[in-house]
Write a structure and sequence with these properties.
Structural class of chain B: mainly alpha
Distance between the termini of chain B: 22 Å
Number of helices of chain B: 3
Strand content of chain A: under 5%
Number of helices of chain A: 25
Largest sheet of chain B: 2 strands, antiparallel
Shape of chain A: globular
CATH superfamily of the largest domain in chain A: Sodium/glucose cotransporter
Largest sheet of chain A: 2 strands, antiparallel
Order of helices and strands of chain A: HHHHHHHHHHHHHHHEHHEEHEHHHHHHH
CATH class of the largest domain in chain A: Mainly Alpha
Oligomer: heterodimer
Strand order of the largest sheet of chain B: 1-2
CATH topology of the largest domain in chain A: Sodium/glucose cotransporter
Number of domains of chain B: 1
Helix content of chain A: 55-70%
Radius of gyration of chain A: 24 Å
């Protein structure tokens, strides 16, 4: 059986499973569509949250970004897990106690203002659509590889599948489907990592193998990796090279953003009790940590494997891989398959029949190149987003592992895209149309408008996904910055302060969203349209703060503006102060409104 | 008003637990993982140093402990102050 058939089998079987579950648990009423009738156990909910959360960015993109940068991209690991601490301590139990379906309902009621609710909806939509763009990038990579077509075709097919999938059911269908997706994606992520860790270090647990010894040389794996990448003129893997201040801000943005994203917060509305909301956040992080503790091992080991493949005879001295090897040696088949997607490329610039892979921006290596007659780095294109999907092929793992990884990558992208589309559609139909524009809308009309909103969101995201502002995880990081700057501060102040009032919250959210959005557009192009940017992340507008790190600054602006404006306007009425007091204690959660 | 004063004791106990947890949260990630890494560079861990381990694994493990510890302590605190869900 050839690899294409195996992939098709694995992907087909996993899809049949998800769709079967979605039909079995089909959402009937509006309340089931949004919040699954509040009957989900914390462990189940944690697993579904993990699937919802771990998207194309975590599964497909993150290890690739770590692999090619090393220590400096630890930001993704700390940022995307540390946010759960904020979520569990600062938001989840109180929002569950408040007991409504959507984040904007809380903001609308707490800040006793229809305007606040609408502003929150706008913030949610902006952050979620940006997030879906990142997902579509990942979907394009996964479908492109698995159907063996170019990236654009893969993206268009993937968009159609995501849409069909998301309209199938609401949260209830999605919750149990996502448990299945979690199982598929975590197996797909860890099984190849276990194989590779065994090959390289003899340790079956990748997280331990990373800090273990490289079996072939007897040296510690990370020391070996540092030596190889240094020889090729790249930055040492474990060392810190970037700007420390930017690294801090970026980590903080990802953390705050995690606690401000609607599709994750919504999950905590679906547990039966306040105490369960606390446990749920912990369980979610347990299931997420299984992947996040494996990811740095995947990145480091893949970088080592790739470097050794390009210099197969023991470093530069032994000579580069030859074109003939790439064509005929079956260990290099992955290069041919990935070249078809347009995401991997090489060119024998000096015509010596070999492909030299090195950092041609490094002065020492430039000197060596001049001496040896190299004409620049010849591995001309290595898209970071292909690393995880290509990894089992690079390590020559059996065909079924490659098929499993294809299914896992699609599960990751689909589950998150579906969760986000659900958050967008509920924001539009429930908060915007039913809550503000037409309160008399029928249940049927509400469901219809939810689906139309999904369709529009996916068309916009697909269009922008064709020319994404970065690799999947980088685009997703921008979405986190937007959520960090707008939603999280409003939620936190709504719970921890009785003083912040309607005008303060509205002004804070608008200020946070606008400064962050403008900062991102100035660096990534207006509305992410290429070449409309005035600055670049290599030389940012403010000091060393890159556009991906600006969310933390936006959040600070939000807090400051909200406090100042609240101080200058009418204090919060007594009944709202009582509402805040009641949100703070768990007792009475069962009596929360279930409209 | 008796209930209110008990609620405010409950709330300040909660805020205290949150603050302590967040100090540890910041220490392991921003501290050990980034800012204090140079100071920890003398402690070797598998081919690199302790700061690298905290940045890539240690902080995640501490985050997990923090959340479960918070859930456990708060559920206990709820009962002590009689504000748990019956």
């Amino acid at each position: 059986m050839d690899q294409f058939t195996i992939n098709l089998l694995f992907v087909g079987a996993s899809f049949a499973l998800y769709i079967g579950i979605a039909i079995w648990a089909r959402a009937g009423s509006t309340s089931e569509f949004y919040a699954a009738g509040r009957g989900v156990h914390p462990v189940t909910n944690g697993m579904a949250t993990a699937a919802d959360w771990m998207s194309a960015a975590s599964f497909i993109s993150m290890a690739g970004l770590i692999a090619f940068t090393g220590y400096d991209n630890s930001t993704y690991l700390m940022g995307w897990t540390g946010g759960y601490v904020l979520l569990a301590l600062l938001l989840a139990p109180y929002l569950r106690k408040f007991g409504k379906y959507t984040v904007s309902e809380f903001i609308g009621d707490r800040f006793y203002s229809q305007t606040a609710r609408i502003v929150a909806v706008v913030c949610l939509i902006v952050a979620s659509v940006t997030y879906v763009i990142g997902q579509m990038t990942g979907v394009g990579v996964a479908f492109g590889r698995f159907l063996e077509v170019d990236n654009t075709t893969g993206l268009l097919i993937g968009a159609a599948v995501v849409f069909a999938y998301a309209v199938f059911g609401g949260m209830k269908g999605v919750t149990y489907t996502q448990v299945a997706q979690y199982v598929v994606l975590i197996m797909a992520y860890t099984i190849p990592a276990i194989f590779i860790s065994l090959q390289l270090t003899g340790n079956p647990i990748p997280a331990l193998g990373l800090f273990g010894d490289h079996a072939a040389s007897g040296e510690p794996l990370l020391a070996k990796l540092d030596a190889i990448v240094k020889e090729l003129g790249f930055n040492e893997y474990t060392a810190h090279h970037g700007d420390t201040f930017n690294m801090l801000l970026f980590t903080l943005s990802l953390m705050i953003g995690t606690a401000g994203l609607p599709h994750v917060i919504m999950r905590f509305f679906t547990v039966p009790k306040v105490s369960d909301a606390r446990w749920s956040a912990g369980w979610a992080l347990v299931f997420i940590a299984l992947l996040y503790l494996t990811a740095p091992a995947v990145g480091a080991m893949a970088r080592l494997n790739i470097s050794e493949m390009m210099w197969p005879n023991g470093g530069i001295e032994g000579g580069a891989v030859t074109l003939e090897q790439i064509e005929n040696d079956e260990r290099y088949d992955w290069m041919d398959t990935w070249q078809k997607t347009g995401l991997l490329g090489w060119e024998d610039k000096n015509g010596d029949g070999a492909i030299q892979y090195y950092n041609d921006g490094n002065a020492e290596l430039q000197a060596m190149a001049a001496e040896k007659g190299w004409a620049g780095n010849e591995l001309t294109n290595f898209n970071r987003d292909i690393l995880v999907l290509a990894n089992p092929e690079i390590a020559n793992l059996p065909g079924w592992v490659i098929g499993l990884v294809a299914a896992g990558g699609l599960a990751a992208a689909l589950s998150t895209a579906a969760g986000l589309l659900l958050a967008i559609s509920s924001a539009v139909s429930h908060d915007l149309i039913k809550g503000a524009i037409n309160p008399q809308i029928s249940e049927k009309g509400e469901l219809l408008s939810a689906r139309i909103a999904m369709a529009v969101a996916i068309v916009v995201a697909t269009y922008l996904g064709l020319n994404p502002p970065g690799f999947a995880a980088q685009t997703v990081a921008l979405a986190f910055g937007l959520a960090a700057a707008s939603i999280f501060p409003a939620l936190m102040m709504g719970i921890f302060s009785t003083k912040v009032n309607n005008s303060g919250a509205v002004a804070g959210m608008l200020a946070g969203l606008v400064v962050t959005l403008v900062y991102i557009f100035l660096h990534k192009g207006w509305f992410f349209i290429p070449d409309t940017n005035s600055f670049s992340d290599a030389d940012p507008l403010l000091g060393t703060i890159k556009s991906t790190s600006f969310g933390a600054v936006g959040a600070a602006v939000n807090f400051a503006v909200a406090y100042v404006v609240s101080g200058m306007t009418k204090p919060t009425p007594v009944h709202i102060q009582e509402l805040v007091e009641s949100v703070r204690v768990p007792r009475g959660a069962g009596a929360a409104q279930d409209h | 008003m008796a209930e209110n004063s008990s609620n405010s004791a409950y709330w300040s106990a909660n805020v205290r637990i949150i603050l302590i947890s967040l100090v540890i949260w910041a220490l392991v990630s921003f501290g050990f993982g980034i800012l204090l890494r140079p100071m920890l560079s003398g402690i070797a861990v598998g081919g690199t140093d302790l700061g690298f381990w905290f940045a890539q694994q240690g902080s995640i493990i501490v985050f997990l402990i923090l959340i479960f510890n918070y859930a456990w302590r708060m559920n206990k605190l709820d009962r002590e102050h009689g504000v748990d869900e019956e």
